[in-house]
């Protein structure tokens, strides 16, 4: 038996398959359009239709890093339909492309002064801190203030002794001043020398007043003792009493101080007077054989003698001893005194 095929049925089957395939392709395209519309802002996907551009902007950095700017970008898409007609413009969110935000910073430090100084030595250096981390532009340390300086350790008192001026006598004079000792070893701000004490004296010159005298009163000559300030020794005095006066009035118009080392012996009417120097003029004795009278109707002369000795000579003082004797050798008086030989 011969098998036969129904051509009409086969043709319908083929057409149905083609139509189904075509419909499936159309549905797939529609699904793609729908997916594009739903995911329009997901720019990692490729749109089916339209143009895409980037838009940039620079915005300010935060206040904590105020220098520089932040660069941002967003995508701009013009959406068209499948026929190429413009529908709308879509924008993505801004996202950061780069960040250059910096802040000026200052670093400070205090360094120690040298060992013999006091104060503060302050320094600074400058840099920019990046918000993203790290620093740039670091400068060298610079001094902004420096009060380091040498300082006063103590105040001392200084003394010095100076010799007396030419022509003066004494051990000298003492001067004093205050001065500051500083940490660099220097001496500063002296107060100036001031006199503390002085043993300097100007010696007297010339001849002292009479220490003693013996004279014949109205009856003759007298002898006297004087001190020579310039040479620290005795000198002889000779003269005649004032006419008609008693022996106490020995200062006559012809009173004379003899030269250094000169002794004498004078004889007058009924009287005599002597002055003798010895021991380098450090000892002197004067005498008269009629130093005074007994008085009354039986008047007669009484002999007297005076001796003087220089015991010691200091810068401005001389110690002198004087003894008086009667004619029989009996000591009538004795005294020791100090002669001031400076002004």
Word description of this protein:
This protein is mainly β. Helices cover 9% and strands 51% of the residues. The strands form 4 sheets. Strands 1, 2, 3, 4, 5, 6 and 7 form a 7-stranded antiparallel beta sheet that branches. A hairpin with a 4-residue loop joins strand 5 and strand 6 (135-136).
- How would the global form be characterised? rod-shaped
The fraction of residues in strands falls at over 45%
Gyration radius from CA atoms, angstroms: 68 Å
Percent range of helical residues:
under 10%
Query: H/E series, N to C?
Result: HEEEEEEEEEEEEEEEEEEEEE
Main beta-sheet strand count, sense and barrel state:
7 strands, antiparallel
**E-strand count:** 21
- Summarize model confidence as the mean pLDDT: 79
How many helical stretches?
1
Question: Could you say which structural class the secondary elements and strand pairing correspond to?
Answer: mainly beta
Low-confidence stretches: 1-49, 242-252
End-to-end distance: 188 Å
Could you provide a short overview of the structure?
The chain is mainly beta and 343 residues long. The chain has one helix at 7-38; strands at 51-60, 67-80, 86-91, 95-111, 121-130, 135-136, 142-146, 152-162, 169-182, 187-188, 194-201, 212-215, 222-228, 233-239, 256-257, 264-267, 272-278, 283-293, 301-313, 317-326, 331-340.
Break the fold down into its secondary structure elements and pairings:
Elements: H1 7-38, E1 51-60, E2 67-80, E3 86-91, E4 95-111, E5 121-130, E6 135-136, E7 142-146, E8 152-162, E9 169-182, E10 187-188, E11 194-201, E12 212-215, E13 222-228, E14 233-239, E15 256-257, E16 264-267, E17 272-278, E18 283-293, E19 301-313, E20 317-326, E21 331-340
Antiparallel strand pairs: 1-2, 2-3, 2-4, 4-5, 5-6, 5-7, 8-9, 9-10, 9-11, 12-13, 13-14, 14-15, 16-17, 17-18, 18-19, 19-20, 20-21
């Amino acid at each position: 038996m011969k098998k036969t095929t129904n051509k009409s049925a086969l043709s319908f089957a083929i057409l149905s398959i083609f139509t189904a395939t075509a419909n499936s392709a159309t549905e797939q395209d529609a699904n793609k359009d729908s997916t594009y519309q739903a995911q329009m802002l997901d720019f990692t996907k490729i749109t089916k239709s339209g143009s895409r551009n980037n838009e940039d902007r620079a915005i300010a950095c935060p206040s904590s890093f105020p220098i520089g700017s932040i660069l941002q970008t967003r995508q701009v898409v013009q959406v068209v339909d499948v026929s190429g007609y413009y529908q709308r413009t879509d924008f993505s969110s801004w996202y950061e492309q780069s960040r250059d935000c910096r802040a000026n910073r200052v670093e400070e430090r205090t360094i120690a002064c040298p060992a013999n100084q006091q104060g503060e030595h302050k320094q600074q250096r400058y840099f920019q801190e990046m918000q993203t981390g790290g620093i740039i532009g670091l400068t060298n340390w610079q001094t902004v203030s420096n009060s380091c300086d040498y300082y006063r350790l103590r105040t001392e008192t200084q003394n010095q002794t100076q010799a007396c001026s030419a022509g003066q006598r004494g051990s000298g004079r003492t001067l004093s001043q205050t001065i500051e000792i500083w940490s660099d070893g220097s001496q500063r701000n002296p107060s100036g020398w001031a006199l503390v004490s002085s043993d300097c004296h100007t010696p007297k010159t010339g001849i002292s007043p009479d220490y003693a005298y013996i004279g014949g009163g109205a009856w003759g000559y007298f002898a006297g003792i004087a001190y020579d300030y310039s040479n620290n020794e005795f000198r002889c005095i000779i003269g005649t009493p004032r006419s008609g006066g008693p022996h106490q009035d020995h200062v006559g118009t012809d009173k004379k101080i003899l030269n250094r080392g000169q002794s004498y012996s004078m004889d007058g009417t009924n009287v005599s007077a002597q002055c003798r120097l010895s021991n380098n003029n450090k000892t002197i004795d004067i005498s008269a054989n009629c130093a005074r009278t007994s008085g009354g109707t039986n008047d007669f002369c009484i002999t007297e003698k005076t001796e003087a000795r220089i015991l010691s000579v200091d810068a401005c003082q001389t110690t002198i001893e004087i003894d008086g004797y009667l004619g029989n050798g009996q000591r009538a008086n004795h005294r020791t005194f100090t002669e001031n030989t400076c002004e």
